[in-house]
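Budget justification note: compute hours in this period were largely spent on complex prediction jobs such as the one shown. Inputs:
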Amino acid sequence: MVEQLFPNVNWDRMWQAAYETIYMTAVSTVITFILGLVIGILLFLTSPHQLWANKIANFITGSLVNIFRSIPFIVLIILLIPLTNLLVGTIRGTNAALPALIIGAAPFYARMVLIALREIDKGVIEAARSMGAKTSTIIFKVLIPESLPALISGITVTAIALVGYTAMSGIIGAGGLGQLAYIDGFQRDRSDVTQVATIIILVIVFIIQWIGDVITTKVDKR
Amino acid sequence: MIQLSNITKIYKTKNGDLTAVRDVNLSIEQGEIFGIIGYSGAGKSTLIRLLNGLEKPTSGEVIVSGEDIARISGGKLRQARQKISMIFQHFNLLWSRTVEENIAFPLEIAGVSKGERAARVQELIELVGLQGREKAYPSQLSGGQKQRVGIARALANNPEVLLCDEATSALDPETTEAILELLLDINKKLGLTIVLITHEMNVIRKICHRVAVMEAGQVVEQGQVLNVFQNPQATITKNFVSQVSDSSETKESIEQIIANYPTGKIVRVTFVGQSTKEPIMSQLIKRFDVEINILHGAISHTANGPYGTLIVHIDGAQGNIEEALHLLATNNIQTEVIARG
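Corresponding output:
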């Protein structure tokens, strides 16, 4: 039945490609979460009236975030080829896609972190200061826990965007479902391969969204 | 305990300088409940934040239990803040933490060990009457309960001073009473110095020993609460005092009386302490042949003693009325002619 519907699908290659997509998405999401959180917190703390209010630092961080957020991902991959070569030692394979994925997604997530942190009641930060809390205590015990639902739903959206980015990184030979759909499906005119790759990508996206929703609901005590 | 000398705070804004606090001098004793009253924008929020260094004065000196709060910073300021806690109008609890975790927060900041934290939290929960709610999240609590958590949290590190930033302004009248009782109770039990800011004279009346009235960044009047109630000087203070003693209904009925009684005088008589017990009105009637009609009466209790107001209509010969008012004055009773026929 499945054989008849999708006669050209090589299932071993399909599962291998799915694994590559999941691997690239998972690793880049974890690193994007950490990097985006750091940049987002820096943006927040250096903004006016905050603990490290500093116009210059805020302007530089904000500008870098805006620049990298504005470059189309497909262009960013090509621009970053020399850096990738330096960091990973090759420009082919799943690991070679990671620098571009992270540099493309981290500024995007940093903006979402900033929005999440701005939603925190200023009074709560003031209360922590009035108790004699250090800035590090405020970051780890006030800022992050108090914005956690927004941070999680933000990383969910980012992870889903990253699934899309991994497909595009197929152009530098990163592997994954995107590349399979393009080379095996489009270039060889086997539309069933493209269809199966699409279905698997959809399933991955739905699972990410579901996990994100479950965790967001669980941590939100408001 | 607290000494403010020549405090001025100027904010730089786009539209020029804004003076929030102008040349304020205050001295607050150990164990005292000191109230600062003013309308919003009077500078009282800024003033109270100067006491724990959340704001720094542009000039002047802030001494709280021997520390020059305006000059210290870093670890030393953080250390000092553990002894000067604060509660807030909107409670400012961490929604991500349960009641007991919220109360444990300042203990974590102070580096108290886990075992000691649990014991101290239990003590505090009993002190503020929140038994059984330890595992609840703030979203599951009423306003009054949230403020109890705020108070417990503020008391965790055994502070010397408690700052209350409009602590009852978001609460309904009954809950306000209960929270004020609790503050009075901890003031007596722990000998804590309390500084509170409010725009409600009722709060001042209920628990404060002394009061400062603020207007446009300046302290326009200060003194014992009873004296201020009995003999308010500034116009703004009179407004605040009438907040407690007169209802809008009284004002209407006074207007009605003025229309009905074209002769005589309408007088507000204020009794304080001992004088509330003397039958002064009947003496007036007997001695001066005047008619006295009581329009309104109220007795309020302050932390320094009871105080009563009567609004009466006095009618009779002009000379007799004057003599009657003179007798009241010599008996140390405050009178104010509201309207004359």
